[in-house]
Amino acid sequence: MLLTLRCVEPQDKALALGLIYFAIGLFGNVPCPIIYGAVVDSACLFWEESECGERGACRIYDPTKFRMYFHGITAAIMLGAFVVDVIVWYKSDSIQFHEDEDISLPKDTMAAEVSRCTQFETSV
After folding, report:
1. Residue 41 to residues 62, 65, 120: CA-CA distances in angstroms?
2. Which parts of the chain span the membrane according to its record (predicted)?
């Protein structure tokens, strides 16, 4: 996120942050329950059948299979994130940063402001 804030023009920072949070929600929060739901379902040994003959809830899980699939998919996702981090680190030398505009007052104006404020405080 800090990289994005430093690489985007100052007037586009709000839009950039909005797009990042949208992408996180779309690619992180939407597929996660689907992927892990499939992992949980793949470790089922005995499915309950409804009266209509459809598959219902899982009654017995294979704990070894569940553990291997669950930690395996988590490790694969984390490995992918690590690879992306390494690529960003490798390419970071070629990134051009945009500096924020300096909105500080000139020194003479600051001195006048300070003296005016202190005069007001002492006269009260």
Report:
1. 10, 11, 73
2. 20-47, 68-90
